[in-house]
Amino acid sequence: MKLRWLLAAILLVALPARAEEVVAGLSQTRVSITADFAGSEILIFGAVKRDRPVPADADPLQVVVAVAGPSVPVSVRKKERVFGIWVNTTSVEIDLAPSFYAVATSGPFYDVMSNVEDLRHKVSVTRAIRSVGATTEVASARDFTAALMRIRDRDGSYQLHESTIQIDEETLFRTAIELPPDLQEGNYTARIFLTRGGTVLDAHQTVIYVQKVGLERWLHALADERPLAYGLLSLAIAIAAGWLASAAFRYLRG
After folding, report:
1. How far apart are the C-alpha atoms of 28 and 43, rounded to whole Å?
2. What is the Cα–Cα distance from 5 to 22, expressed in whole angstroms?
3. What is the DSSP letter of 36?
4. Is residue 64 a contact partner of residue 123, using CB atoms and an 8 Å limit?
5. Furthest C-alpha separation in the chain
6. Dihedral of the CA atoms 113, 114, 115, 120 (nearest 10)?
């Protein structure tokens, strides 16, 4: 037993320490969704901690930031015109796709992170989407994944901001990520990568908590936990709104 612990200690001492480590922070780690929520901006900043000087011939330091929302299954359907009517003809079930995904880099994406590192850490939007199955009628499931990416790119749910991270003296860095108004509630992960020559040197991860508060939270909980009561309340509000509109119209005419 003592020999085993001695060997473990020797191995730990022999492991090389990382020459560069990332120390990062966020302007906020909690986002509250209220009735008038119109989106938010998160500032991501940090510094590089070094235990030895960087060689003069080393590749420039690069930084990649990825912010991901909760991943859920998604059904992507293709519509075609059949006898003059648009109908769903084929579909693909994507196993997991982030509800929100934003990537910011200090340069062109594949200049700062190699394909191998992207495959390992799943940083690009394509790697973040997990799609391993498709119906036998579908010739290429990749087309459906690409369609999902285009749709969410247009509505701001998927973002790629290349060359937007500012690095000062290869030590300090900062960037900002815009969160859209239609955020899904849940835990969002923010990952920060340090790279040189496309290779990841260090990574840091933290969590951003996104939750509904106030009236939005109450209505969301009511719809999930008591759908019958939520339906009756919606019906009552609709009837009351209709009656008030009718009464106001009669008053204005009289």
Report:
1. 8
2. 31
3. T
4. yes
5. 99
6. -70
Amino acid letter, residue 160? L
Cβ burial 9-48 (10 Å sphere, 16+ → b, else e): eeeeeeeeeebbbbebebeeeebebeeebeebebebbbeb
Q: Cα separation of 119 and 133, whole Å?
A: 19
End-to-end CA distance of the chain: 97
* Tokens 């939750």 found at: 211
How far apart are the C-alpha atoms of 123 and 65, rounded to whole Å? 9
Cα–Cα distance, 149 to 115 (Å, whole number): 19
> Which parts of the chain are beta strand (E)?
20-26, 30-33, 40-50, 61-68, 71-82, 85-98, 101-105, 158-161, 166-168, 172-179, 186-196, 199-212
* Residue 210 and residue 185 in contact, taking contact as beta carbons nearer than 8 Å: yes
pTM, entire model: 0.74
What are 88-140's pLDDT values in tens digits?
667 778 888 999 999 999 999 999 999 999 999 999 998 998 766 545 455 56
Which residues does residue 93 pair with via DSSP β-bridges, in sequence order? 75
List helix spans (H) across 82-174: 109-112, 115-121, 125-128, 141-154
Q: Measured between alpha carbons, how far is 54 from 61 in angstroms, rounded to an integer?
A: 10
Give CA–CA dist 44/208, Å, rounded.
12
Query: Is the Cβ–Cβ distance between 66 and 103 less than 8 Å?
Result: yes
Whether the CB-CB separation of 55 and 48 falls below 8 Å is answered with no
48 token code pair: 């590089």
Residue reference for tokens 């900043």: 45
